[in-house]
Amino acid sequence: MTRDEFNAFCGRLPAATHVVQWGGSDVWKVGGKMFAVCGWAEGEVAGITFKASPVSFEILRHLAGFRPAPYLASRGLSWIQRYAASEMADAELRDYIAASYRLVAAGLSARARRELGVTA
Known about the structure:
The chain is of the alpha+beta class. It has helices spanning 3-11, 54-60, 90-106, 110-116; strands at residues 16-21, 25-30, 33-38, 48-51, 66-68, 79-82.
């Protein structure tokens, strides 16, 4: 998945907003809460960071090209970073990003979800 493909996919998620922060990283949020980041790449692969369920975190952290996200995971948060080439298909990566979106949206208040038109 390229950076442009990442941004196009995230932009199609309901009520998702985009900002550029931290030295040019594309940061995607729902309800003001971050759910995915593209930046910090090593080589030609787009570095993509996202929130994961505890089970997904344990699985993904052991796959080639993935690691616990620097800074976020060191604070006890279940965030994963795809930092190098991996065997994962783009469709599967999109599924994990969508799951991250749902995890973050579910953490919003019922009122915020209602106002954003987000179901979690």
